[in-house]
Specification:
This protein folds into three domains: 80 residues, Orthogonal Bundle (Arc Repressor Mutant, subunit A); 114 residues, 3-Layer(aba) Sandwich (D-Maltodextrin-Binding Protein, domain 2); 87 residues, Periplasmic binding protein-like II (D-Maltodextrin-Binding Protein, domain 2), CATH 3.40.190. The chain is 39% helix and 17% strand. It is built from nine helices and ten strands. The strands form three sheets. A five-stranded mixed β-sheet has the order 4-3-5-10-6. A three-stranded antiparallel β-sheet has the order 8-7-9. Strands 1-2 form a two-stranded antiparallel sheet. A hairpin with a 4-residue loop joins strand 1 and strand 2. The radius of gyration is 22 Å and the shape is flat. The N and C termini lie far apart (68 Å). About 4% of the residues have low confidence.
Length: 303
């Protein structure tokens, strides 16, 4: 068997994720016939059937599912190597921090203050992304450390929890559900969240949509506008709800929805002193916030 090429892996992953040769070809920017030929050639090269094809559908085989897991990891490694070598070649090193704007529990300014005080710190650069994109940015080398919401795909990552808080659902103020003081997931049947998933499945805001599903709204302003019109509902940590009160939106607790946990995460093979400094700063800031919250709960004046 000859060596596999990165191009072959990209072709295979696109078909495996789309389960449709036409959509995969469009995603890759190529015509369908050469893509089909390339997958047949790959199957001959490997000596296994990767897809079962009929006139109506494409299904991945058990062998294909095993190959998909390893192909994704191989592509991630290739992409990460390219990003990291470019970063290593910069004349001015920096610390790239992946996060979704406004999804930091209000901790980021204090974390950065504490981080700057550490002798191992480097100039920070924020790598902003959509919901759930931060773990992938860490794996493919676009970021060195990140703030992520659980649950998240932790393959190849280490993490430390920083903050846990209740999750609320944002619904239109005119929605009949807004008249209730609390909701259950079953009450959200028939409604969808950004990305098109059914709301009653309880998709957390840190999770990405599956390939092939609708693209989620790109920012909170867009999401809130859609919520106000009744087009969708949105699960938000309490800190986000406090930061964005809007007359057209009602936030309600969902009693059977798990709390949201904000964590600091980083590649498990990193040896960067700057990453370690950021993690120390994040954990220290979160510990102080937790201590102050417990003091307030006990009814004592904060120190």
């Amino acid at each position: 068997m000859g060596d596999l090429e990165v191009r072959q892996l990209r072709y295979f992953v696109a078909v495996a994720e789309e389960l449709h040769f036409g959509r995969a070809a469009e995603r890759l920017g190529m015509a369908q016939p050469p893509l089909s030929r390339a997958i047949r050639d790959l199957e001959r090269q490997l000596g296994v059937t990767l897809f079962e094809r009929t006139t109506r559908q494409v299904e991945i085989t058990s062998a294909g599912a095993v190959f998909l897991r390893d192909a994704r990891r191989a592509l991630e490694a290739v992409t990460a190597a390219a990003h990291r070598v470019r970063e290593a070649g910069r004349s001015s090193p920096r610390l790239r921090i992946a996060l979704k704007a406004d999804i930091d529990g209000g901790l980021l300014p204090r974390i950065l203050d504490a981080y700057h005080a550490d002798a191992a710190s480097l100039p920070p650069e924020l790598v902003l992304g959509g919901f759930g994109e931060q773990p992938q940015a860490l794996r493919d080398g676009r970021a060195d450390v990140g703030l992520v919401l659980s649950p998240f795909d932790d393959r190849g990552l280490d993490s430390e929890p920083l903050l846990t808080e209740p999750v609320l659902v944002a619904v239109a103020a005119a929605d009949p559900l807004a008249a209730r003081t609390a909701l259950r997931l079953d009450d959200l049947t028939g409604r969808t969240v950004p990305g098109g998933a059914p709301a009653h499945h309880g998709r957390a805001i840190g999770q990405r949509s599956r390939p092939g599903t609708a693209r989620p709204a790109s920012n909170l302003s867009e999401i809130f506008s859609l919520v106000e019109t009744g087009s969708l509902v949105f699960f938000a940590p309490t800190s986000v709800a406090r930061r964005y009160p809007r007359p057209g939106i009602a936030y309600r607790p969902v009693t059977d929805l798990p709390d949201a946990t904000l964590s600091v995460a980083w590649p498990d093979d990193t040896r960067s002193p700057a990453v370690a400094a950021f993690v120390r700063a994040a954990c220290a800031v979160a510990a102080v916030r937790h201590e102050r919250a417990e003091t307030l709960v006990r009814g004592l004046p904060p120190s």
